[in-house]
Design brief:
The structure is a single chain. This protein is mainly beta. Helices cover 0% and strands 54% of the residues. A hairpin with a 6-residue loop joins strand 4 and strand 5. It starts with a strand and ends with a strand. The mean pLDDT is 95.
Length: 115
């Protein structure tokens, strides 16, 4: 499984950004798909998780109501729609897939939110 994340960039506070994570294989067999982020000087943290194909969704409290995780199975892609961005959302965002207890990671994509 190879994951390719994209969509990062610079945005002003209050703006929006959509991240994409494309898988090299069908995501319907994945146990979990997740977005993590790592801010400068901080540990990597889980932002949101979904269980394909349309199962339970978990979102970190700090992004509830602002971030939405969803998937397009036909495109083997997971998305993270981020609205009302804040400076504290600045981080490198990583996508992750768990398949039969194996973890796969995409490369990070940097989101910078300026106030």
């Amino acid at each position: 499984v190879q994951l390719q994340a994209s969509g990062g960039g610079s945005v002003q506070a209050g703006g929006s950004r959509r991240l994409s994570c494309v898988s090299s294989t069908s995501i319907f067999g994945f146990n979990h798909m997740k977005w993590y982020r790592q801010a400068p000087g901080k540990e990597r943290e889980l932002v949101a998780q979904l269980n394909p194909p349309g199962g339970r969704v978990l979102v970190q409290d700090s992004v509830k109501g602002r971030f939405t995780i969803y998937m397009d199975g036909g495109k083997n892609t997971m998305f993270l729609q981020m609205n009302n961005l804040r400076s504290e959302d600045t981080a490198v965002y990583f996508c992750n897939a768990v398949v039969l207890s194996q973890n796969y990671w995409g490369q990070g994509t940097l989101v910078t939110v300026s106030s």
